[in-house]
Design a protein that fits this description.
alpha/beta; Rossmann fold; ProC C-terminal domain-like fold; 8-stranded mixed β-sheet; 15 helices; 53% helix; 13% strand; globular; binds NADP nicotinamide-adenine-dinucleotide phosphate
């Protein structure tokens, strides 16, 4: 009877309040679940310079642009949600703030100067991003072997093997070391990163995490460790070799009267178009063979085949591939800690 006397609008308001409370509870629950999926790991970049900033930038960008409702399908269950960036100088620290401060998730980054132990203790995953010759002293410093015990170490150090990193960490038996070789195009999220296959293989969740980290900055391939020096030469030195070729392309046009700025732009865009054709043109989603691409534009009796003949006379193929082989040998010698490795050889 009393219920009948309660006006409809009061009943409706009560229902609305209940509904709002329920929705808010469900939203919080959903957000907690998403945080569980998305967060949880602390990533420390030991040596956060050019490459460290590019990789961290890719990760922060990806996390900042993914809403709580949508998690990338390739994402591991636990993503990094706290970040430590370690440098030596105040200039290095300022650079991080200048280059990464734009990302919403920069609030989760702590910059450490001349202090590697605390951020390593706090980390689950450590990206080694210092110069190759610095790694021994950094890993052997007081407190570091203990701080790194049981952690996942990802090294991007050119020429430095997993074994040589392990030898700097005699007591950190349980650390897992993964070697990866990104390139300078990481800065524009177009890196070609080679990830060395681990033996024994990584646990699924670790492998997914490593792949996810490097796909934030471009493409990845997996190859055995024995290929890493050649990959360093192809992908690490490749941008410099390609830049020389682009400079030569533009120089030819400049010599024939094309304005300088336009010539460089045209050379760069031509290379970009060519790489897109190669990357997207193959059968079954594979890469198009460069010779197929070359043949397609070489009309019999035309200007392209005429130019190609000149390149063949200049032994461009042999010279460029020899440069890659030379860089491979130099990379492996640098990795052994040798200096003066570019001297003449018999
Ligand atoms: N650059 C590339 O294209 C490329 C490509 C593939 C792989 N790699 C590899 O990536 C690594 C980094 O190269 P990079 O070009 O990024 O070098 P980088 O710009 O010189 O960065 C090195 C970083 O290490 C920091 N650092 C120096 N001493 C340290 C210490 N004791 N503790 C903690 N941090 C310290 C430096 O800080 P300060 O600035 O304060 O001294 C700097 O932030 C190298 O091992 C290289 O072989 C580079």
């Amino acid at each position: 009877m009393e219920r009948d006397l309660t006006p409809d609008w009061i009943l409706q308001q009560t229902l609305n309040v209940q509904n709002t409370a329920l929705m808010s509870f469900l939203k919080d629950k959903q957000s907690e679940q998403n945080d569980g999926k998305r967060g949880g790991l602390t990533l420390t970049v030991l040596g956060c310079g050019t490459m460290g900033i590019a990789i961290l930038g890719g990760i922060l960008d990806s996390l900042s642009s993914t809403s709580t409702q949508e998690v990338d399908s390739d994402a591991p269950k636990r993503l990094p949600n706290k970040f430590n960036a370690c440098v030596r100088s105040s200039k290095g620290a300022e650079r991080i703030k200048r280059e990464l401060g734009q990302y919403e998730r920069f609030k989760d980054v702590t910059v450490y100067q001349n202090d590697n132990v605390k951020p390593s203790q706090d980390a689950d995953v450590i990206l080694l991003g210092c110069k190759p010759y610095m790694i021994g002293p950094i890993l052997k410093a007081e407190g570091m072997p203990k701080a790194l015990e049981g952690k996942l170490l990802i090294s991007i150090l050119a020429g430095v093997t997993e074994q040589s990193i392990q030898s700097s960490l005699p007591s950190a038996e349980h650390s897992k070391i993964v070697r990866a070789m990104p390139n300078t195009a990481a800065a524009v999220r177009e890196s070609m990163t080679v990830i060395a296959t681990s033996s024994p293989p990584l646990e699924d969740e670790t492998a997914v995490l490593v792949d996810w980290m490097f796909t934030r900055i471009g493409r990845i391939v997996h190859l055995p460790s024995s290929n890493m020096d050649a990959c360093t030469a192809l992908c690490g030195s490749g941008p410099a070799f390609t830049a020389l070729f682009l400079e030569s392309l533009a120089a030819g046009a400049i010599a024939m009267g094309v304005p300088r700025d336009e010539a460089y732009l045209m050379a760069a865009q031509t290379a970009r178009g060519t790489t897109q054709l190669m990357l997207k043109g193959g059968q079954d989603g594979g890469v198009e063979h460069p010779a197929v691409l070359r043949d397609k534009v070489s009309t019999p009796g035309g200007c392209t085949i005429g130019g190609l003949m000149v390149l063949e006379e200049g032994a461009v193929r042999g010279t460029v591939s020899r440069a890659v082989r030379e860089a491979t040998v130099v990379a492996s010698r640098l990795g052994e800690g040798k200096s003066g490795v570019n001297g003449p050889r018999p």
